[in-house]
Amino acid sequence: MFGLMVRFTCKDAAAAAAFDALVEETGEQIRQHEPETLIYTVHRVDGRPLERIFYELYRDEEAFQAHEEQDHVKAFLAAREQYLSATEVDRLDFVSGKGVHRER
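RE: above sequence
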């Protein structure tokens, strides 16, 4: 299992609204076309209206690479920068959790 946690900070309220629309469009494509993307969630951060947290969980690193190669993901990656002032990425190594299981 392979995961990411990404914190995006948008430039301003207008950029945050446009980023959210881009995220919604991309998320729909991920739901429809990426069966090995197990979890792909986006959250607003309470008290920090310009921040978004992405939590992504993939069956394995190969599934993540397949995700990165999708046209809808490439379009998202190209478009997102116009809305952002900062990006922080943490790669995650799964230990335990509810709703997902480490494959052996």
